[in-house]
């Protein structure tokens, strides 16, 4: 999935986890209650089952990632939550 600069998902969670592999650019991710993390090509991010989080591009950089999501007959792939506010996103560390 490709995110243009500043684009990001809504807050969401995956009942059976999600793994994100960054392949290009510079991205950001955040787990509910945690700091915003900078992610770069080669980084692997594991979001545990039902861990609320978001991910997307840095404000001035695009980001491309491959996401692997688990599901089965008893679990949806994703539960979408509220949008990430500009205030929440503005807390990102500076990215070069």
TrEMBL record:
It comes from the Bacteria. Pfam families: Cupin_2. Transmembrane segments: none annotated. InterPro entries: Cupin_2 (IPR013096), HNL-like_cupin (IPR047263), RmlC-like_jellyroll (IPR014710), RmlC_Cupin_sf (IPR011051). CDD domains: cupin_HNL-like. Residues 1-58 form the Cupin type-2 domain. Gene3D superfamilies: Jelly Rolls (2.60.120.10). This is Cupin type-2 domain-containing protein. It comes from Streptomyces brasiliensis.
């Amino acid at each position: 999935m490709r995110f243009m600069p500043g684009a990001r998902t809504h807050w969401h969670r995956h009942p059976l986890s999600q793994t994100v592999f960054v392949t290009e650019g510079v991205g950001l991710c955040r787990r509910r209650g945690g700091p915003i993390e900078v992610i770069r090509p080669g980084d692997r991010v594991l979001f545990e089952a039902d861990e609320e989080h978001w991910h997307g591009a840095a404000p001035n950089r695009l980001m491309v990632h491959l996401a692997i999501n688990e599901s089965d007959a008893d679990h949806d792939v994703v539960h979408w939550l509220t949008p990430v506010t500009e205030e929440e996103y503005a807390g990102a560390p500076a990215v070069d």
